[in-house]
Amino acid sequence: MTSKKNVSKLSDHTVYRKQGKVVTPFNDKIGGQLNLTSWATERMPEYLWLGLILMSYGRQEGFEKAGRILRTISEEVDALAEPKLSLIFNLPTETQQSVYRIIIGQVSPATLSPLTVLYRADEHPEFNKIFNLPKIRFEARLERLNEAVEIYMPHQSDEGTDLRFLALSLPLFKGNIQISRDATSTIEALSNYPYTDHEDERMRSYRPSIRAMENAFIEESDYEFSKDFWERIGMITRCKPMGIVHSENNTNYETFIAQFQSVLEFVLKTHKSTSLVDERFDVIVGSITYALQIFVEVYGNSLGNSILGRHGVRTIVEIYIILKYLLNREADNPSIWEEYKLYGISKYKLILLKARENELADSAHFDPLVADVLVNEIKWEEFIDVDLKYFDKQGIREKSIEAGEKYLFDLFYDYDSSFAHGLWGAIREASMLTCDNPSHPNHIVPDIFMLQTLPDVIADCFDTMSKMLELLRDNYAFPEAMTTSE
What we know:
single chain; mainly alpha
């Protein structure tokens, strides 16, 4: 995986442990001073009428016609400082009429007709008197408007930059934007941009200059107007949910599972005396058996592409990290295995105490009778305190570092924890579809029919289970041939 350009590395971020934040270099320096705006969702709708002119007449003729319109407005309409549709709509009736006369002096009324599907006669009578042409079907106008949105939404596209140039033109004509004579590259870009083809090498420097100027000099947009634009067009156009379907891992793990089971059976038979009295044996072999059971459930029930598959990876990784941590600590604390068992039982005890104080439904999947036996198995529950902290007072991250497995924590445990806790990143990836309608920007649709799948986890489960098998071999020897494929 290669690094993305213009994106800071994790090591570039600043860690503020007291606040519990990892802050980007950009936000660390000036983040609090920024007022972020969006071309696509906030500013572009204001200038879409100019985009329709470019679409109708082509780039060269469109620039000429739009330029003449904006030049005439700058000379005859003092009240309009920027070519924003919201500002035009708020002009007095006579002034609006003047603007519309200037527009149709250069272009056909059919050019701006698509906007009448959003801005109807009851709210904008003067606009509709000129541009609402009944002979043009509603569906055709709406399709044209959707096409314009798709073309001009990308803020760095050639077409989007063309529209941003026109957004600058009226304030430039009015003299509201002053350019220093020393800014020769900016003057050159403004002077030559509409007459230069996008294929021309010079446009590689012109386009960024135009975008930077539009972003810097244009006044703040009317947020309510833009919000209203997207609501109106969104309500009359269909959603196009687009799901991502990942392929299933078809590798056959039956032999691996059978070998693992044979190994565990061999270890049990050859270490039976140990298993009768050794807490260490219980924890290592019991934990590995639990992990294998999860692997078998994920594989056997084809859960690799599912949310539950990610729960499985997280648990398998945690078991492996915990076992390596316990093995690392046992020399300093021989009782650590019993302490670990009692820690887990104390968690059960707390639930049992709460269950005794509450009347559980018969259908509850927590069974107090079974829990009672388990809690009192090692020692009487009155001798077992409940530990509310992490085992051994270290979180799983710290344990992974000590165990030399931080890679597993960073890339799997942390990621899959989002799915276990139902955090938004996981919900977005698993349960929300991207709406592919350009008129629904940033719209996501709940995947109520479960069309989307996730990348298969079974290979990562297998890799960690293979590590677990080696851990078992290091502690309870078994013949190499037992895990050698034929």
